[in-house]
Design goal:
Shape: globular
Distance between the termini: 45 Å
Number of strands: 17
CATH superfamily of the largest domain: Aldehyde ferredoxin oxidoreductase, N-terminal domain
Radius of gyration: 22 Å
CATH class of the largest domain: Alpha Beta
Length: about 600
């Protein structure tokens, strides 16, 4: 039976055979996985072998929207890309805003499952319930903005939305991203390389379908209440709106939590020149927002005579303090190149910082020094096109540092680079990094919310007390939000109970706070189980040696390192996992996962490193 909030259709694409086949969305999947990330993980966990290479044709790629994507609920713009990560080897997802997700639903589908490899560069064109595979020879090799324009010109029309890869994805960089709306990026995990391995340049969507909520009057009432709550919260006219996510630069730096020069320090003396406030004073042209967004945290900036998408906090950190660079314009140029070439700016900046330290320690013949802003911009280009040293760096910092004989200089977890918060001063954030099922990540359960901002409660950032419980709760909630198709910034305003109320109003399903968090926990455990089968086990739930052995040199956390035990044991116990980090039979039964796991085989019984 059709359910409002869903299109009730999945598109199955076989690029090898050249076929596009619509299929019904099973009703039970809505209850088990909600949509978005959860739906993609649910589809892949029983159909994808953990033994297959991430860049092999048989590795599927899923694009999935959630029930709140395009619903009209505040900040309901998101979609997820799900596959095995070429960077970390995990079952990973990458989340993206903008306008592509809502257009995919208007085109008639909740999710697209893509398998195989095309015989030539191709575009997947989805429109009003139908789909076809078209030739992309004219756009292959183009930057993302040129490719979007060409795809629209060739087959989609100006109102179509396009998600595409750039030269980095075509060249199978393990840091390659998928870009839509010129500056909205599904960045982490290298899933753009999965598209590139399939010779899939772009997915274009355009449609006119819509689904009315079950009770339009009640839906309107809930939507108005939520919009009012967003307005009254202050984030629509507060620092997030005025300065974007870059408003964090000053806050995190003053707390001595801003990783600097490849995490050797936690404070950047020149940070005032790269804050969101400085951006607003100097290069900001206008603010931008996603579909149904009242916050508008996006930036458009002018550098020289060019108007470009402005850098977010993580990007400013990665190309700025982590590389010792204090030029806002250089950071903006590096960010623009990442968007054009299709690169994850966090991993790219962190890999450049790693190369700088390797060079400084004479482990690299090339001279690359901290603070060299021109080198940063040049290296982004070289990584995107795999030119010179950029060829090796395109593999990510861990493989690059390992090749140089010093993997300890890669500040990564499970092969994915850490974002811009020093976990030696944020115990819970460190636990989230260490246990994240896609590799180091903050948006998979951002413990900076309670440890820095005091949302939903204020936690002492330097204590271990309660961190296992809160980390699990934040991770489950983040998975649920990714599955709903709504922005993570709603965490600043909405509780799980309110997210559940919005979902119930949009779909008519009996979604509660408990069932919402249970769906998030189910998604988390499925990703964990895949990783275990892939050989990613307890030994990988840790932080880089530097953060375990080298104390912070300044600020409230001075003298501190991140202590893995007993945090990890407590976390495993709270999750209902055994001492090796494996979900117990009781946990699988509680999450109703046993039927899903039958096709995937048994969970390994020994620790995997």
């Amino acid at each position: 039976m059709a359910v409002p909030g869903y299109m009730d259709r999945i598109l199955r694409v076989d690029l090898t055979a050249g076929s596009c086949t619509p299929a019904d969305l099973p009703g039970e999947w809505k209850h088990l996985f909600l949509g978005g990330r959860g739906l993609g993980v649910g589809i892949l966990s029983s159909q994808m072998s953990p033994r297959s290479d991430a860049l092999a044709p048989e590795n599927p790629l899923v694009l999935a929207a959630g029930p709140l994507t395009g619903s009209g609920m505040p900040l309901g713009s998101r979609y997820s890309v799900i596959s095995r990560s070429p960077l970390s080897g995990t079952l990973a997802s990458s989340n993206c805003g903008g306008f592509f997700g809502p257009e995919l639903k208007r085109a008639g589908f909740d999710a697209v499952v893509i398998r195989g490899r095309a015989s030539r560069p191709s575009v997947l064109w989805i429109h009003d319930g139908t789909a076809e595979i078209r030739d992309a020879g004219a756009s292959w090799g183009m930057t993302t903005s040129d490719a979007m324009a060409r795809v629209r010109e060739d087959l989609a029309g100006p109102k179509a939305r396009v998600a595409c890869i750039g030269p980095a994805g075509e060249r199978l960089s393990r840091m390659a991203a998928i870009v839509s709306d010129h500056g909205r990026v599904a960045g982490r995990g290298g899933l753009g390389a999965v598209m590139g391995s399939k010779l899939l340049k772009a997915v274009a969507a355009k449609g006119s379908f819509s689904r009315e909520p079950p009770d339009p009057e009640q839906f309107q009432q809930v939507r108005d209440e939520m919009r009012d709550l967003v307005e009254r919260s202050g984030i629509t006219k507060g620092s997030l709106h005025r300065y974007g996510t870059a408003n964090l630069v000053r806050l995190i730096n003053e707390a001595h939590l801003l990783p600097t020069r490849n995490f050797r320090e936690s404070h950047f003396p020149e940070a005032e020149g790269i804050t969101g406030e400085k951006m607003a004073e100097t290069i900001l042209e206008r603010v931008t927002g996603c579909h149904s967004c009242a916050v508008a945290c996006g930036r458009e900036v002018r550098v020289g005579n060019q108007a470009i998408h402005g850098p977010e906090y993580e990007t400013i950190w990665a190309f700025g303090p982590d590389c010792g660079v204090s030029s806002l314009e250089a950071i903006a140029r590096a960010n623009h190149l990442c968007n054009e070439l299709g690169l994850d700016s966090v991993s790219t900046g962190a890999t450049i910082a790693c190369a700088m330290e390797l060079s400084e320690q004479a482990h690299l013949p090339e001279r690359i020094r901290f603070g060299d802003r021109d080198a940063v911009v040049d290296l982004v280009r070289k990584i995107g096109y795999r030119e010179g040293i950029g060829d090796a760096m395109a593999e990510g910092s861990y493989r690059f540092a390992l090749r140089c004989g010093h993997p300890e200089f890669s500040i990564s977890v499970k092969g994915q680079e850490l974002p811009g918060y020093d976990p030696r001063g944020l115990v819970g954030q460190g636990l989230e990094y260490a246990t994240s099922v896609r590799g180091a990540c903050h948006v998979y359960g951002n413990m900076a919310y309670p440890e820095v901002y005091g949302i939903p409660v204020r936690l002492d950032p330097l204590t271990q007390e309660g961190k296992a419980e809160w980390t699990k709760w934040m991770q489950d909630q983040a998975a649920a939000i990714d599955s709903l198709g709504i922005c993570m910034f709603t965490l600043r305003v909405f509780s799980p109970a309110l997210h559940a109320r919005m979902t119930a109003a949009a779909t008519g399903l009996p979604v509660t706070e408990e069932s919402l968090l249970l769906a998030g926990e189910r998604c988390w455990n499925l990703q964990k189980i895949f990783n275990l089968r892939a050989g990613i086990g307890k030994a990988d739930d840790t932080l880089p040696p530097r953060l375990l052995q080298e104390p912070v040199t300044s600020g409230p956390a001075r003298g501190q390192v991140w202590q893995r035990q007993p945090l990890l044991d407590a976390y495993y116990a709270v999750r209902g996992w055994d001492g090796e980090g494996r979900p117990t039979p009781a946990t699988l039964a509680r999450l109703a996962l046993t039927p899903v796991l039958v096709q995937g085989g048994a969970i390994p019984t020994g620790e995997n490193s």
